[in-house]
Every structure is written in C-alpha cells, then in structure tokens.
Amino acid sequence: MPLSSQIEFPGALRFAAESVERMMDRLLPRGETGESRLFEAMRYSALGGGKRLRAFFVMGGATLFRVSATSALRTAAAVEFLHAYSLIHDDLPSMDDDDLRRGKPTCHRQFDEATAILAGDALQALAFEVLAHEDTHGDPAVRVALVSELARAVGAGGMVGGQMLDLLAEHRAAEMAIGAITRLQRLKTGALISFSCGAGALLGKASEPLRAALGNYAHDLGLAFQIADDLLDVEGTSEEVGKATAKDAAAGKATFVSTLGPERARAQAALLARQAAAHLEPFGPAADLLRQAARFVVDRRS
Amino acid sequence: MPLSSQIEFPGALRFAAESVERMMDRLLPRGETGESRLFEAMRYSALGGGKRLRAFFVMGGATLFRVSATSALRTAAAVEFLHAYSLIHDDLPSMDDDDLRRGKPTCHRQFDEATAILAGDALQALAFEVLAHEDTHGDPAVRVALVSELARAVGAGGMVGGQMLDLLAEHRAAEMAIGAITRLQRLKTGALISFSCGAGALLGKASEPLRAALGNYAHDLGLAFQIADDLLDVEGTSEEVGKATAKDAAAGKATFVSTLGPERARAQAALLARQAAAHLEPFGPAADLLRQAARFVVDRRS
Hints:
The first copy, chain A, is mainly alpha-helical. Chain A has helices at 9-27, 36-46, 53-63, 69-90, 107-110, 113-132, 140-154, 159-168, 178-203, 208-235, 238-241, 247-250, 256-260, 262-278, 288-299; strands spanning 100-101, 104-105.
C-alpha cells in the first residue's frame, strides 16, 4: 500500500511511521555476539518512538515521482538512522546533557556514555550503508547522489556545524540577531529536513524546476518546524513533549522565541507554513499530504 | 608523480603522507563563520601527523591497477578522515581517556569534549562526502561501491563493533581466548585496513582473483599490524610512540601480547607479514612497495 492511498495527514503520518519502523527493524543489526550491547543501544534509540516526520517527508516527496515503496522506505530509514544518531549525541552530558528523550531515558542514561557515542557513530555509518545498497535504487548514480547530498546535509557545513553553533549560542541570547539564529537552525535542523523532502526528487530523477519547488517547500518548512520547536520548549510540558522543556531559556540560548517573542514567532511560523505549501503548486492535488504536513508542523503539541 | 616512481618504502611512505596531507588540507572546511571552532578541531586532529599507513595502502593498491593519482589521493584522504574521527572518539574520557595523541594533546584536551565529539562526527560525514563526489571517480558505480564498502567496514559490523568489544574487554584479560582477541582486532582495526588495501582494486575495476589476492594481503597485514601495536604498547616509550603506552595492561585488556607473551607474539607478527607478502605473487614486481610495507609494519618503533 503506497502512502498516497491515505488522504488525511494523521493517518498518513501514522502509516509512514509504522512502515519505516518495520524497515528500520529489518536493517538494524542484531545478534548474540560480544558486541550485542552496541546493537541493543542502536535499536533502543532508533526504534519505538518519534513522530517520524522526516520519514514522512521522504515518503511524501517520493509519491510525487512514482518512486517504488522499497526505495522510499529504505531512504526514509536511512534518514531516521541519521536523525537518531544526532539525537543520541546531542543528548550527551558534554552537549545538551538530557536525561529524557521521547519519554524514555536517553541512550547514555540507559546504557553508558561510551556505548551511546558508539551507537551514534554506528547509526551514521548505517545510514550511508543503506543508501549505497543496490536495494535502495537500481541506478548507482541515484544512490551516490543520495549519499553525496546526505553527507553534505549532515556534516560540518550542515547539521554538525549547526550543533556547534548551538553549543556556542549558550549564554548569548542577548547578542544573537535573527539572521544568526536563522542560519543556526537552517544548518542544525533545516539541512536534514531539506534532504528528506528532496530525496524523492532524486529517487524519481525529477526535472530541475520540480526539484527546486520541493526544495523551496523544504526550506520554509524547516524554519517553521524549528520555530514551532522553540515554542514547544517555552509552552509545552515535559509530559506532552517527551523531553525536558524550558531548557533554552535556562541555558541562555537565543531562539526565535526569545528574540521575536511568542506571538510574533507563532505568526512567523504560520506564515512560513503557508508559504511552504504555496511552493507545492506545480504538483497539484498529488501534494495534498505535504500541504497538510506544513500545517501540522506548526500546530503540533509535541 | 605517481607513488610507483618511488622504489624504497621509507621514501614512498613519506611521499604518500605528504601528498595525502595536501589533499586533506584542500578538502577540510575552513572559514571565519561562527562554527569555525569545529573546522579548527577537525583540522587539528586530521592534519599534521600520523604515519598515514592507511593512505599508503590505498595509494599502493591503486598503483597496481593504473588508477589516476586524483582518484587514489581523494580515496586515501577519505580513509584518513575516517581514521582521524575514530581516534578522536576513542580518546574521549568515556572511552580510552587519553591525553596524548601523535605527541600532541588529544582533541578533547585541546578543545573540549563536545567539540571533539562533533569534529569526529563531521569527519565521518566528510569521508563519505569525498568518496561520493564525482572528482573521486568518473563512474558512479565505482563511487557507490567505495561508499558501501567503507560504511560496512566502519559500522556496527566493523570498526565501531570492534571498539565496543575493546571497551568490554577491559578487566577480562584472563578470560579472552586468542580467537576472541583476533575477532576484536579484525573488526576494530582490520576492517579499515582491509578497505584501504582493497580500495585500489575497486577504483581500477580489478578482476575478482586480483581483488581476492589483495584482500588476503590486507587480512594478514591487518593482524600483523595489530600485534605490532600491542608490542609497542608493552615495549615502546611514550616519547617514541607519541601516545601513552603500557595502557593495555593497566586496563587489564586482553591483547595478543598478554595472551601469547611477547616472543610468540613477535614471531606470529613476522609470520603474518611474510604470509601477507606472499599473497602479492600475482602482481609481480609492481607490488614491491606493498611487500616492503608488510615488513615495515612489524618492524616499526612507533
């Protein structure tokens, strides 16, 4: 059953989450060898939780270009492995020092710090291994393009660079301008979300204009997503959100909310979400789920 | 100037080290943006040191198959980025807790723990980015094969799995049999050395028998290398080796030396090195540098 058989977003998101979870379970290592503690830590952090929004974006983008379900699901799984690794490392004591993630103890609390670092490292490698495998796409040029774009999205010029900026942003709430915050978030979360939205176009060998349209959607959506995340940190409870909240203010971090105030931030997120949806015009009704996703991203309570 | 213009191993190793260092310098990010601390940490740990044995193996293997210098050097740089990341993470306080690496403070001592973790993460992504880039090879099928093999060599089923085993091996010197130690080392260091030796065959689209011959060389050489490393930990001084020594015994780690004793370990390393060189027979004199490398690996003092 393809994602496009769902016509309402909540069902489609649940469908994507369940499908990618099954694929991840198949792709993750298991076994009773001496290093099985590592496999357990990878499974603990990668499986059993999360909204799987990035997987949804991969699968939603893939339906626009008639990509096979296997290609879309394997790519979605790779993105979720990458995301899981980034959460494990972000939560470490020397980074954000979080005890709770998706309502469970973080990886280093459940296992130990060394195991958590290694589980993250191995999940990053697994993401590239899955993308490069011939089951992901019959054309090696497509597979290597996926690898190339993911590597750029998550390296020093993308996600990891953004996390470095984020750590340096502590205690600098007063000095950071909105431009600097936007750049930080575009790197830290935007780059992987952009990759997720655009992966379907790579898998489907889409024309340049359609790739660009999807890219613009991803860009605006990524920022809307982050503003919503900042709002949840201020307004959500830890029970709702599944992780510690009110952490940004405690760390003196500059965020969209600390700089714009909650009302303007909410308005900005809503504007970006509408803008994101507008970029999908060339796809017609086929992109309805992605349009609904843009609204969901800013309205969500967790 | 290709590597094959060198006929003696010490000069060839120096040539490979200098060439790959220049390539790495070009490929590493730099800039005055907010996250430049990350770039500095990546450069600090990746550049300016190390024997670059893995780069030599890539370049030495590549000369057997008339691979272009650029292809070989970019692949060698990717391997060295990967290796540098693994050293940064291995040195962390929650892992081996080392203060000294290649005669300099380790990355987390020079910067801080969070920056070191991120520098390692970004170097891993950079390795895959470099391999996937079209400058590395004109044929996408070759590039994606490199990505696929490297990802498998360094993930949960390879290097990271080996590091997990190594951490769990502390205080278990008495119980670990030689088979378990061999498996640990084959994963922890052997898999990346095998990739390095075999990369030239991938780049040069070698026939299966020649790939296998190089693979057998890599297998025996990897073990010889690790036994020599264990001997250096016991017999070398920290000044010679550039990192703390006598650490394995202090941590109660089972190694080839603790299990076999230094004399049998030395004999075993020499045997493996001779065996490795013998696998190179099909290549004739073209493989002379790789033969010399096998001897060097067991005779080195650092």
